[in-house]
Design a protein that fits this description.
541 residues; single chain; rod-shaped; 8-stranded mixed barrel; alpha/beta
Length: 541
């Protein structure tokens, strides 16, 4: 008898525990991945912003420099006497052409004499030494104080007798600058700093210009920095160096940190589910059955068939068994049905037949009356190569074909003609055919004649109905009448009590019995011992 499939306690409880740890690890892994991905994505946007910020500074600086030079060039084209009313008016008219120049003046003996905005100064303003002198003669001043008048501070550029004052609004309305982003506007070789941006001292600006970009800036480690440097092209070259000192996740708020962690755990949960599904798919019963068949991990047990009148063991039925490392003992009712569903039954049957003939070879060769019954499925019977496979094994082991009985379940197919043609091929080769589970499917006399069966097996549902007032008991009485005149062996399955044997013997003296009353399925070595001892032999026979 076959019990229902029950996984072992260890396999049942170990899977959830493994999946629990997998979920936890996947959650942590997902968080790390989420943090890393967000970190890299933020850095990518920060680099783009930093470059855009540098370009904006550079463009403003270049435009201011260009306007300064143009305004000076225009001022030097004046035909009027320096600082005359006409000359001052000429300078005033030129201011309308420039966005980043707020005043233009004249220099005499190193001092400012007049400007477009303030006119002729009552007292000339002495200029300090310039901050920078370019090869083409331009002088630069940074943050001139109280020039041209008290309370005014501005940058200036001069050439010959003209000076232009750069507007305070040159670098207004730049892209919003976070506190951890800083920039420096310099000459080509960084030997002069025009202006700094952000919270940056002069010394820090100098150090920034000496730094090279951190090659490992993408690592999610606090303290990493990214840096960009852009320079203009042409005769006048200015450069912008910008840096971001709080990269990626280190520049966002705790709220965003919490959101990232939640997303990470969600991602980890999804990852865990995918891994679990993949693992379960890999370790599903069907997948493990295929592995067991491929690796020949299934084994065979044998249940004795008893001649009831004599008590002699005259044969055995081969029964496939499977103990899986993950699922424990798996019932044949489960894995055989699964093999049929997954088109694995042919390989399974061939494995069982091979093991059976190997196990039983010596018993069959040494006892010509001994036989072995093997169950076949409809897929086995419709395989044109299966009979050739059986023939090869029989010849290889030196076994007589008539010692093999192939049990066919009638409910496995309703095509009587096809089954008849197939079984006739087996009978023609000398093999015996048994109609299994008789009375449970499409049982009728035409099946018996069409299959040319040598044996019929009465299903255990009828055997176990003996002594009960049930429809199966009444049907069993009818079966006795049916088989009374049939010239074939009759096997009763599922005999578990002595009264069942007595009832069968009284109505069918030549019957063969099989059940736990005599023996449970055992390994091949036990069959050898039972054949020698014949413990069930009746002395009065």
């Amino acid at each position: 008898m076959h019990s229902a499939f029950q996984p072992t306690a260890s396999s049942f409880f170990s899977l959830p525990k493994k999946m629990h740890w997998m979920a936890l690890l996947s959650g942590l892994l997902g968080t790390v991945i989420a943090i890393s991905v967000v970190h890299v994505v933020i850095i990518k946007h920060e680099r783009e912003f930093l470059r855009g910020y540098s370009e904006a500074i550079l463009n403003r600086g270049l435009q201011a420099n260009k306007e300064s030079r143009l305004s000076l060039k225009f001022a030097q084209q004046s035909q009027f006497e320096q600082c005359s009313p006409e000359d001052i008016e000429y300078l005033r008219e030129s201011l309308w052409n420039y966005d980043f120049i707020h005043d233009i003046g004249r220099i005499k003996n190193g001092a400012i004499e007049c400007t477009a905005g303030w006119g002729l100064l009552a007292e000339q303003k002495k200029l300090p030494h310039f901050s920078e002198l370019t090869p083409d003669g331009y002088q630069f001043w940074k943050r001139l104080k109280d020039i041209p008048t008290e309370g005014i501070t501005s940058n200036a550029i001069a050439r010959r007798n003209s000076i232009a004052f750069v507007s305070h609004y040159v670098f207004k309305n730049l892209p919003h600058n976070p506190e951890f982003i800083a920039a420096v506007l310099t000459t080509k070789h960084s030997d002069y700093i025009y202006k700094t941006f952000g919270d940056l001292t002069k010394q820090q600006a100098i150090e920034l210009l000496k730094k090279k970009e951190d090659p490992f800036f993408w690592l999610p480690v606090k303290g990493r920095q990214i840096q960009t440097q852009l320079c203009t092209q042409g005769s006048t070259v200015i450069c912008t160096t910008a840096t971001d000192s709080q990269l990626g996740i280190f520049g966002i708020s705790n709220t965003y940190h919490a959101i990232i962690i939640v997303i990470g755990f969600l991602f980890g949960g999804i990852l865990s589910l995918l891994l679990s599904f993949a693992r379960l798919r890999k370790n599903s019963l069907g997948a493990r059955l295929k592995q067991a068949i491929d690796k020949k991990l299934l084994h065979v047990q044998y249940q004795p068939k008893i001649q009831l009148q004599s008590g002699m063991i005259i044969g055995v039925e081969a029964l496939a068994r499977w103990n899986d490392e993950e699922y424990g003992y798996v019932s044949p009712d489960v894995f055989i049905a699964l093999a049929e569903q997954n088109n694995q039954i042919k390989e399974l049957t061939k494995l069982i037949v091979s093991k059976t003939l190997s196990d039983m070879r010596d018993y069959l060769v040494n006892n010509k009356a001994f036989f072995v019954s093997i169950n076949l499925s409809i897929q086995d019977l419709t395989d044109s190569q299966f009979l050739l496979f059986i023939d090869d094994l029989v010849q290889q082991h030196g076994i007589r074909p008539e010692q093999l009985i192939f049990e066919i379940t009638e409910r496995s197919a309703a095509d009587q003609d096809a089954m008849s043609n197939t079984t006739k091929q087996f009978v023609k080769k000398g093999y015996q055919v048994s109609l299994d589970d008789f009375g449970t499917g499409y049982s009728n006399l035409s099946w018996l004649s069409a299959l040319e069966a040598d044996e019929i097996k009465i299903d255990k549902m009828f055997t176990q109905a003996i002594g009960t007032d049930s429809i199966n008991q009444n049907m069993l009485n009818g079966i006795f009448q049916l088989i009374e005149n049939l010239k074939m062996h009759v096997v009763f399955e599922g005999i578990e009590e002595q009264r069942e044997e007595d009832y069968i013997l009284e109505r069918s003296p030549n019957a063969i019995g099989q059940g736990w009353l005599y023996s449970r399925p055992v390994l091949a070595e036990e069959i050898g011992k039972l054949l020698i001892s014949q413990p069930l032999k009746k002395t009065h026979a």
